[in-house]
Design goal:
Largest sheet: 7 strands, mixed
Radius of gyration: 16 Å
Helix content: 25-40%
Number of strands: 7
Structural class: alpha+beta
């Protein structure tokens, strides 16, 4: 559901998002860092209506994941499809950020090589987390919670994208 913009800056919006554990919200900021869209979703998803997708090109899009995970594949597919400059996911403890290259997105999820690398990234992440669990470096709970973050870290590194996790 589209809501009136509330004038929040990116930082203010992300503080708000970090406290939303029941419903997903999404904010869009234009190239001048002005909030141009705010949308309320539900517990599992938030979507930009087709009538507003023109606002996404070169924008910074931030939204929360109440379940605490990093990007979904749909998040990254939309970033590529709508040429979003920066995609951000906020949880109660951190913000995950991926930034488009200056030359644009060169990821194609219709390409078998991209999908194979995504699967390989999942395998590598699972192996790394299993090792850290066995060495008591990370708990099973935290491994599950941050699995997607490990996957995207490996995936984006391979493609040369800036991906980071910022602790709140």
């Amino acid at each position: 559901m589209i809501q009136p913009t509330d004038g929040k800056s990116l930082g203010e919006a992300e503080i708000f998002l970090s406290k939303q554990q029941e419903i997903e919200f999404l904010y869009v900021f234009d190239e001048k860092d002005t909030q141009v869209l705010k949308i309320q979703g539900n517990y599992e998803t938030v979507s930009v209506p087709i009538s507003h997708t023109h606002l996404l090109k070169n924008a910074c899009v931030t939204h929360n994941h109440p379940q605490g995970s990093s990007f979904s594949i749909q998040d990254i597919q939309r970033a590529v499809e709508y040429d979003i400059k920066e995609m951000r996911v906020v949880t109660d403890t951190c913000v995950f950020v991926v930034t488009r290259k200056k030359a644009g997105w060169d990821i194609d999820f219709r390409d078998e090589n991209t999908l194979n690398w995504l699967e390989e990234s999942k395998t590598l992440a699972r192996d790394k987390l299993d090792k850290e669990i066995s060495q008591n470096i990370i708990s099973l709970y935290d491994a599950h919670k941050f699995f997607d973050s490990f996957v995207w870290s490996i995936f984006f590194f391979n493609f040369g994208y800036e991906y980071k996790k910022i602790n709140l």
